[in-house]
Amino acid sequence: MANEIGSTSILDADEKIPIAQLSGVYKIFKQKKIEVMALRGIDLKIYPGELVVIMGPSGSGKTTLLNCLCGIERPNAGSVKIKGMEITKLRDEGIQKLLQEEIGIVFQSFNLIPSLTAAGNVELPMIVLGHLSKKDRRTRVEDLLTKVGLDHRLHHRPATLSGGEKQRLSIAMAFANDPALIIADEPTANVDSVSAESIMAVFKEFMASNPNKALLIVTHDPALRKIADYTLVIRDGQFVRKIESKADKGSRFDSESYNEDDFITDIDMARMDEKTTRIIQQKNYPYFKDVKICPNCHSMNILKKMDVSEPFCQIIDAKIIQRASIFCKECNELSFVTITAHDLNKVKIERMGFD
Ligand SMILES: Nc1ncnc2c1ncn2[C@@H]1O[C@H](COP(=O)(O)OP(=O)(O)OP(=O)(O)O)[C@@H](O)[C@H]1O
Ligand SMILES: [Mg+2]
Predict the structure, then answer these.
(1) SS (H, E, C) 154-207
(2) What is the C-alpha to C-alpha distance for residues 138 and 124, in angstroms, rounded to an integer?
(3) What is the pLDDT of residue 56?
(4) 294 close to 333: Cβ distance less than 8 angstroms
(5) Is 51 helix (H, G, I), strand (E, B) or coil?
(6) The pLDDT of residue 302
(7) End-to-end CA distance of the chain
(8) Helices 118-129 + 163-175 axis angle, to 10
(9) pTM score, two decimals?
(10) CB 42 within 8 A of CB 216
């Protein structure tokens, strides 16, 4: 049952021990009489030096996967090894040690302690681990906060920081004890594009200066996916696709410059119903600058088509109300959005382009 998509191609590197290895991992949540199978046989190997991205629709099991990988959740079946050590049977102390020493977590919700300053937050994991003297801790805190561009915010409390600064602070916390693996859950989801860029720069720098460490990021951010070794697409608790990105880095994930024909030939037709197939086979996709992401999974890897016939195109109160079909290559969903155009001339020009 377990699918193989998550295994890397470095299978000849037998002597290399993966930093993280999940084999046939299942996770079922039970609430009263309802069971949700959040993970259905996940296989994944992350080797030193790898940056792996996971993406998938909401509810597909991304956070559950990260939680199982770091011991926060126990899987119902399967094995989870960190640096060769099985962690599914560890008692509390073992999990705590794992989280203190081997895995740094960047939570989507930041998980900062409001009463501590930025420096205090980063120092806390070091105090808990107890490996460093006070002087060494302070030096490391300053180094880390400088690396994430917060050296001017050492004594600020989280409430006084912007969203991007909080996110960078939570990254510095994850790095505090120099873990072998950093896992990050949507690290750029709640920040503006400038902050997202600086967060990406921090991860890039981490990979460049720590060739024996690894990074696993849940994200829909195309910029982060571009710097990854590969992206795994998860759906209903299973990996359904592996996208190598270093080999074909570039336009593939760049919605501004993609070649539509490439996309059309690359679509998994087998997964689509007849109606969807008909829609994507019409090659006259208009370019709607306003519609950039899949409403279902937020991927930018989408095909778009304006529905110009009645009843999908109407003029109401001098506004054009029009429906656009969006086919998402990542989650294979067909969605519809309604575009309200206040500027009639602009829309007319756009429509002339694809009529
Ligand atoms: N503690 C829980 N109890 C019951 N069901 C849960 C629990 N945690 C997650 N689930 C369910 O498991 C499935 C996977 O949830 P998960 O949080 O892993 O999804 P996700 O891919 O991270 O989604 P999102 O993109 O919205 O964060 C969902 O159907 C969710 O409702
Ligand atoms: Mg989640």
Answers:
(1) CCCCHHHCCHHHHHHHHHHHHHCCCCCEEEEECCCCCCCHHHHHHHHHHHHHHH
(2) 11
(3) 86
(4) yes
(5) strand
(6) 80
(7) 47
(8) 20
(9) 0.70
(10) no
Q: Please tell me the residue having the least CA distance from ligand 1 atom 17.
A: 63
- Nearest ligand to the CA of 58 is 1
Give the ligand at the shortest distance from the Cα of 298. 1
Judge if the beta carbon of residue 61 lies within 6 A of ligand 1. Answer: yes
Q: Which two tokens stand for residue 192?
A: 């503006």
pLDDT number for residue 259: 32
Determine how β-strand 319-328 pairs with β-strand 313-316: antiparallel
Distance 331 CA to ligand 1 centre (A): 17
Q: Which residues of the chain have pLDDT under 70?
A: 1-15, 246-291, 306-322, 338-355
What does each C-alpha distance from 22 to 2, 77, 89, 232, 240 come to in angstroms?
A: 10, 11, 14, 14, 16
**In residues, how long is the chain?**
355
Q: Which two tokens stand for residue 179?
A: 């873990």
Ligand (nearest to CA of 220): 1
Structure tokens at 116: 């501590």
**Nearest one of 212, 242, 329, 184 to 3, comparing CA atoms:** 242
Ligand 1 binding pocket mutation candidate from 63, 76, 331 (most atoms within 8 A of CB):
63
Is there an atom of ligand 1 within 6 Å of 60 CB?
A: yes
**Ligand 1 atom at minimal distance to the Cα of residue 30:** 4
Distances (CA, A) of 255 to 304, 314, 329, 352: 11, 28, 12, 21
